[in-house]
Design brief:
alpha/beta; globular; Rossmann fold
Length: 187
């Protein structure tokens, strides 16, 4: 993430938005279960909200500095922070009741990498487990925020087929303004 994007994702305004608008919209009444994996939490403002609503939370973050800072900040809370690649986590199969992905898919450098993340998510979910998340659409404002940063937006038109190809079912993709949300379950 570039410095401007990182500052936004660590801001009190983003924290408020995540808690009061984004997470309620993405969940839309869905239950996450008792053992949740968060992919790519960055500075962890989504983690802060999730840890208050689920009994057990694991967060996997690729950036070593962000993972270390999050692990340090959340020490003693029961949240496990893993520094690793969400496309190949090394975590046990069928370990999680839900996997969440908040505004991070566009940071994966290729569509093929995103598809590996979807397949890995399917592997990690228990039967009937939930994969939910959100990401931003390709807009000039979002492109400006990602100057000198990775930005590979996910198309809401192709996302259902990509999630289904990864072995997920009951796929729902919605667009609201410049955001998409998605939900799918494992078989």
């Amino acid at each position: 993430m570039n410095d401007l994007h990182l500052a936004l994702c660590a801001s009190p305004e983003w924290a408020f938005y995540v808690e009061h608008e984004l997470l309620p919209w993405v969940l839309d009444g869905r239950e996450l279960g008792d053992d949740v994996l968060e992919l790519g939490p960055g500075p962890g403002l989504t983690t802060d909200v999730l840890m208050r609503v689920v009994p057990r939370l694991t967060a996997i973050e690729l950036d070593e500095q962000l993972a270390a800072a999050l692990a340090s900040r959340l020490a003693g809370t029961g949240v496990e922070v893993v520094c690793g690649d969400a496309t190949a986590t090394g975590l046990p199969s069928a370990a999680f009741t839900a996997v969440t992905c908040f505004t991070m898919l566009h940071h994966i450098p290729t569509a093929e990498g995103q598809d590996r993340l979807f397949a890995e998510t399917r592997r990690l979910l228990r039967p009937g487990g939930l994969f939910i998340g959100t990401d931003g659409l390709d807009t000039p404002e979002r492109r400006e925020l990602h100057v000198d940063d990775i930005f590979v937006p996910v198309s809401p038109e192709t996302l259902p087929a990509r999630l289904t190809a990864a072995g997920l079912r009951d796929v729902v993709v919605d667009v609201d303004g410049d955001r998409i949300r998605f939900a799918a379950t494992s078989s």
